[in-house]
User: Fold this.
Amino acid sequence: MTLEVRGLNFAYGVRPILRRAGFAPLQSGQLTALIGPNASGKSTLFRAIAGLLKAEGTVLLGETDLATLSPKARLSRVCFMPQFFAANAALTVFDVVMMARKNLSGWRVTSEDTQAVAQALHEAEIGHLAEAYISELSGGQAQMVSVCQALIRNSEVYLFDEPTSALDLNHQLRVLNQIREAVAERDAIGIVALHDLNLAARFADHLILLRQGEVLAEGPPNDILRRPEIAQTYGVDIHIATGPKEDLVVHAYSHA
Amino acid sequence: MTQISNTPSVDTIVGGYQKRAVWRVALVVAAALILFATVVIDVITGPADLSFWRVAKVILNPSVATTKEEVIIWDLRLPVAMMAVVVGAMLGVSGAELQTILNNPLAEPFTLGLSMAASFGAAVAIVLGWSVLPGVGALFVTVNAFVFAMGASLLLFLVTRMRGANPETMILMGIAMMFTFNALLAFLQYGASELQLAQLIFWQLGSLARATWPKVAICVVILAIVLPYFLSRSWALTALRMGEDKAAALGVNVNALRLMVLAGVSLLSAVAVSFVGAIAFVGLVAPHIARMIVGEDQRGFLPLSALAGALILSGTSILSKAITPGIVYPIGMITSLIGIPFFVSLILGQRKRHWQ
Assistant:
């Protein structure tokens, strides 16, 4: 299975957000990091792939043009975790994950459903929050619930919009590990929007660099992070080093 | 994840959920039993000397009733008691779903101007003698109220279709409508005769006195159509409380859901208000009570909002007769009097947990 995006255009009124955005087929089982500065169109690109907004262009999942699917069918194959979570409701964490497991249909909750939700919460190490209201969670806890809610769904494509933005260092590593393992185990296609280039370098198999709605570069982290477009896009000086585990370490400096 | 620490076992998590699920069912059953008791108390409250158990027996088995009991219980008092239950449930459900789709704790038929539109429709009939629909006979006050309430809903409906309209736009539109109909009503009141004014005020205060079995039946049918639809959309409505973005990502067609729910709520509130007049606070308070007890998972929230609304109005019906023996006060007056302090204590005691 592959995911290919070709020439997506989208504008809010006269303000273009995506400009012929596209990338070569992404392979299943791999995790891709979508990187780019604020307002570069990362969330809009995710929404366009998920079909939550109508963009010109083509999104191909295998041989299927996703535009030919009903919105519901499309969202059952493409799971999108939005960046913002309106966590002000009197809903328990268990119910929030359960609604994703039930795919919003059917009142009957089987013992398999309860076991699956409990297992997912346990594995995400948020089992102690199961009966807490989401309005009582910290931003980081709400984000972990959101990731758990996405991962309990069986989809072919997973799009995570900044899943670690509210997490501490330990939880950033845990959540990205969890996402990478899930994508590999399910042979799914995963894309994670990230601001932290070190995390992108550590966890992603593939990088896509977005600037002002255009894909500037795509490829393996070792290649993309060394390109001059990265420094130009972020407006910083970048130095790439090798870490103690032979991993890439990105050092960024403001222009003096 | 390889090492899992500090998190309860899967069995513990499942146990916690099951305990809450059982608790939720028990609460709904308890509320239903208390409601039956209030209906019986509502029926025995009044001049005739009727005992609780006798009335309960006659309600459960009508064949044991004497002629006198049949007239008092079945013909006179039960329609009023049942109207309180059904209209209370309709207002409770309306408030719950308006608060859900508009993401606003103050949304209810009254604050969105639907009740005021119905009052204006009734005033047009009482003061000007105009019937919006011809050939409806003596029901023209009720029909006018219904048509105006539906008209107001339609206007809200059209606003939701506007480009860029959001829940805040709808709330502001509802408030604007409420003030507009209030001003128009004042115009009619200014030119009304004393007799018309008395009729109008009685209608505006809300009353169960005109309840009949056919009216109860109409309300039951409307509730029986709308409530199962809402229940069938439980997950989608629950998802909406996590925000439009999240709900849409889970596959909810947010705009279509809002429109359908608004249509159902309009029908419920227009029918309720057109039969019993403007009754405030039930639609506002009942969902808050339900939310505090079972949270906002619609599988528990919706039935309990309906039961809380029914209990409030049934209790108010008892109070309206018990305050001064021999006098039945307009029910809307009592709900407002009890509702305001209750609502204030609710807000102050809630620790602002939700709706921040």
